[in-house]
Amino acid sequence: MTGGRFVLDESLTAHLAEAARLHGALFERPWSRAALEELLAVPGTAGAAILDIEGQPRFAGFVLFRSLGDFAEILTVAVAPEQRRHGFGRLLMLHAMHKARNAGAERLLLEVQDGNLPAIRLYEALGMTAFDRRPNYYKSGNGSHADAIMMQLIFDD
């Protein structure tokens, strides 16, 4: 998929090093290139990368998701801080939602750290709703903890 200033590459494999670097910059417990590669090898798992093509092409973000029968799960989604507010996160989520639905999923799940308001707002704007909470799920490097909010989208026919 291409747009005015982006290209969505439906194969994350070619971008694993960039994805691992971005994941390492954004998350306290990042996934390495090898970990991402292992996840992609699991049946039903797929990913996509988005490239900003305004000027010199730059890796802007990625999504990794898994479809398992009647449900799908967003494993991670990440957009580089300097690439935010261009709709790239939304495009990555819409891509994953489309693929999940085409794979037969009736429900899409994800978890998000409590307090990550930009992400929560994006997911809510896409129709997702909170349905559960995992207390102290996320642990930071300083030893503090944060809850995970479980969100879902039920696909309508």
How would the blueprint of this fold be written?
Blueprint: E1 6-9, H1 16-26, H2 33-41, E2 45-52, E3 58-68, E4 71-79, H3 88-102, E5 107-113, H4 117-125, E6 129-139, E7 145-154
Parallel strand pairs: 4-5
Antiparallel strand pairs: 1-2, 2-3, 3-4, 5-7, 6-7
Please give a structural write-up.
This protein is an alpha+beta fold. The chain contains four helices and seven strands, in the order E-H-H-E-E-E-H-E-H-E-E. The protein has a seven-stranded mixed β-sheet, sandwiched between helices. A hairpin with a 5-residue loop joins strand 2 and strand 3. Helix 1 crosses helix 2. It is globular and about 40 Å long. The model has no long low-confidence stretch (mean pLDDT 93).
For the largest sheet, list the strands in their spatial order. Answer: 1-2-3-4-5-7-6
Could you list the spans in which at least 5 consecutive residues all have pLDDT below 50? none
Task: Tell me the radius of gyration.
Answer: 15 Å
Oligomer: single chain
One letter per element, helices H and strands E, the order comes to EHHEEEHEHEE
> What is the approximate shape?
globular
Rounded average pLDDT:
93
Strand composition percent = 35-45%
Class derived from helix and strand content: alpha+beta
Q: What is the tally of beta strands?
A: 7
In short:
With 157 residues, this protein is of the alpha+beta class. The chain is built from four helices and seven strands, in the order E-H-H-E-E-E-H-E-H-E-E. It has a seven-stranded mixed sheet, sandwiched between helices.
